[in-house]
Amino acid sequence: MSLRHALLALIESGPFTGYDLMQKFEHTIEYVWRASHSQIYPELRKLEEAGLISPEVLQRSENSRSTKVAYHLTDAGRAELTRWVEEIGTQPPVREPQYLKALYLEFSTPQNAKAQFEAHRVHFQQLRDGYRAHLQDVENARTELMRRRLARSPQSEHEAIKSFKAHVYHGLIARSEAEIEWAEEGIKMLDAMAASSSDPDYWNTVIHPG
Amino acid sequence: MSLRHALLALIESGPFTGYDLMQKFEHTIEYVWRASHSQIYPELRKLEEAGLISPEVLQRSENSRSTKVAYHLTDAGRAELTRWVEEIGTQPPVREPQYLKALYLEFSTPQNAKAQFEAHRVHFQQLRDGYRAHLQDVENARTELMRRRLARSPQSEHEAIKSFKAHVYHGLIARSEAEIEWAEEGIKMLDAMAASSSDPDYWNTVIHPG
DNA sequence: AGCTCCATGTAAGTCGTTACATGATTCA
DNA sequence: TGAATCATGTAACGACTTACATGGAGCT
After folding, report:
1. Is cis: bond before A93, omega within 30 of 0?
2. What is the rounded distance in angstroms from the CA atom of residue A101 to the CA atom of residue A152?
3. Computed over its alpha carbons, how large is the radius of gyration of chain A?
4. Please, what is the Cα angle at A19 between A15 and A21, to 5 degrees?
5. Which of A47, A185, B65, B144 is most buried, by CB atoms within 10 Å?
């Protein structure tokens, strides 16, 4: 049920069209929740039917007959947003494909195990770099979304609002770094095994061929 | 596609019935991948149809007409297991409901924000404790699964196999601890805001009522 | 005239959840 | 005899993915 609330939270800084929201997802929320346009458009219709957002029909441009729809948060929508923020959510079940695979690396070679850890490291380094860049943008209110949100709240709250967001990205950075470290420790583990192995073809020998 | 491979990996230590597999999930794999019996039974049928596992019909007990089905890994199944372990998987998109919510804590009170972080901390403390206990079980080969797996591989590989599994649980513990720390820092952040606030009703004042 | 955004959808299929069901065996 | 455990399913629904589609607007 997170998509609907992500949309409500974004629209609070609106009005936005479906297309706008798609872009916000790509550039900001994506770091925390991914969604594609084929999910967003139908969900907006549902939110409208539920009375949580209200559509405003706009011209696509000056002297143009064709239109686009921008959505506003309704009072009911704001109430639902608050309800969600106050609800203690149940955590999703653990489902970690890479860790699952790491449990069974003995079905292949140390060479492959190393490649798996390498890929893991690279992935989380990239993620971390994205988070870092975005953290800078948030702290300096460089995103349109941050500026809109701050414009609607009293100056005295600006620091608090920025702190919440910065705290999230700091957490995600810390997590990525834990993943990087895990991958590096995996590689060290393999190197140590290689060093203590008598097999000259250690790296290419399947550990448990069955 | 992880469920099918989790099942193949478990059945490698088999033969197991659907019910057995359900239990293994609950007590071991659950720490990395959750699955319910209503998913497992149909998936087993698919694996059988694909020729990756083969059924063996057994009596449910001595002098009993009713039967149960235990599955064995076929050669094709083992090949698929190896293929999966060697494949560099794409990481699932980030989708973090708690972090999403934490981005929007300003829509409620500091009191609520604290409760959210508290719940987060408790959840990951429990997870971590489960991982720690399971890590002990794995390192001392106290689970049936570990004993079965070790029984099928040469003594010389036992340390490597245990190390891979221990490394996974160490990683999950580290991650849980990062989450705990994140929650605690969130609470500290709120306390600091309270200390520097002039509002006597700080904890119950909605930060951004809109 | 063609390319790139802008803007908005549908359809098929996979994966997963919750709830509903049923019957056998074992043990107190 | 009744409860717990063993054993195995189906059905409805929701979330998400990938692919397929379409048309306007603006710029070169």
Report:
1. no
2. 47
3. 23
4. 55
5. A47
B103: DSSP letter = T
Which residue, among A7, A78, A163, A164, would best test binding to B if mutated, counting the most B CBs under 10 Å from its CB? A164
Mutation for testing the A interface, residue in B80, B91, B187 having most A CBs under 10 Å = B91
The minimal CB distance from A100 to the residues B2, B93, B96 is found for: B2
Please name the amino acid found at residue A132. Answer: R
> Residue type for B91, please?
Q
- Residues of B with Cβ-Cβ distance to A164 under 8 angstroms: 102-106, 113
Entry pTM: 0.95
Q: What is the pLDDT of residues A97-119, one digit of tens each?
A: 999 999 999 999 999 999 999 99
The residue type found at B59 is: Q
Whether residue A114 contacts residue A184, with contact meaning beta carbons closer than 8 Å, is answered with no
Q: Which of A32, A81, A185 sits opposite B107 (nearest CB)?
A: A81
A110-139 vs A158-195: helix crossing angle, rounded to 10: 160
Position A30 scores a pLDDT of 87
Alpha helices, H only, chain A:
2-11, 18-27, 37-49, 75-86, 97-102, 110-139, 144-151, 158-195
Give the rounded percent of residues in chain A with a pLDDT score beyond 70. 100
Q: Which residues contact B176 (CB under 8 A, 6 or more apart)?
A: B124, B125, B127, B128, B131
What is the C-alpha separation between B99 and A165, in angstroms, rounded? 9
CA distance B96 to B105: 15
Residues of chain B with pLDDT under 50: none
Work out the angle at residue B121's Cα, subtended by the Cα atoms of residues B117 and B126, and round it to the nearest 5 degrees: 150
Write the Ramachandran bin of A55: left for phi over 0, alpha for psi from -120 to 50, otherwise beta: beta
pLDDT tens string A1-20 = 899 999 999 999 989 999 99
